[in-house]
Amino acid sequence: MSYNIRLAKKEDVVECRKLADFANDLMLSRGNPQWSCGYPQIEILYNDVELNRLYVAEDNGEIVAMVVIQKEKDEIYEKYNFWTEGPYISVHRIVSKRSGLGRYLIQMAIDEAKKIGANVRLDTHVKNINMQKLIESLGFILVGETDQKYIDKTLALTYELIL
After folding, report:
1. Segments making up each domain of the chain, as ranges
2. pLDDT, tens digit (0-9, with 9 covering 90-100), for 16-43
3. pTM, whole model, 2 decimals?
């Protein structure tokens, strides 16, 4: 795999938003309304850039994937008590136009977590079967459900990889 993976810059945000639109169309075609409310909004992506947690993958200068690797506490996850105690990294907003690249980006987060002695947490919509299969194949276990305020009011399936 020969992609250039780097932290996103402010000038990447519009392309990342287009990537999210691509993901939304794909998810809707599979019956998953997870991002059908325009998520992630451009303001969220700018915030991710400012916090140095949005990564992009480029293929010949085109942004073809993105992922958020969040090392600070995740306020969404802090409300729940089904987690393993200790430090963790959260993974959010995974999008890829290339086969296998989503797996690679999640593995990148896992490798980063190993370096700092942390577990990895992430969640997905109950109808995002492809993501569920991918993360389960990487060893994540379903630990509960979190309220992500999806447009269809569905709870998110929440996973953790204990390292």
Report:
1. 4-161
2. 999 999 999 888 889 888 887 788 999 9
3. 0.91
